[in-house]
Amino acid sequence: MITIKAGITLTVIMGLAIIMTTLSPIADVLNVTTEDKVYHVLAFALFVMPMMWVSTKFWRYMIAASVILGAGIEVMQPYVNQVGDVMDLVADVMGAILGVITGYFTSTLYRTYKPRPIELDNDSSHRQSARIFQFRDDRFR
Known about the structure:
The protein has one domain (4-140). 60% of the residues lie in helices and 6% in strands. It has helices at residues 4-23, 35-54, 59-76, 86-112, and strands at residues 116-119, 131-134. The longest helix is centred in the C-terminal third of the chain and has 27 residues, at 86-112. The two termini are 24 Å apart.
């Protein structure tokens, strides 16, 4: 669906954004409550999805990278005047699993139902260069 270079770039950008937002002192000012876990789930789901769009074979590596990143953040938080929380790590892993599932299904749907151009017949009233799109799956014909 996307190239490996684009997938790695998007994943690194998302990882850096996660690190900057979770380790920045500005988070203390925001008065974050239980919605914090929702943000962890969404951030780590978005962290995993670009590599799932490259290939669904990367799911194990992305789960491992999410656990390492989440655990590293929780270990580093006490050193930047924040409190590390095990439930944040659980939310990170849940987000990674959600990202793997969502990335798998969206990439599979895209590959299955990707529109493909077909040429019209010569006796058609349309120009020969006109194209229409149809599903790749023959069940819909």
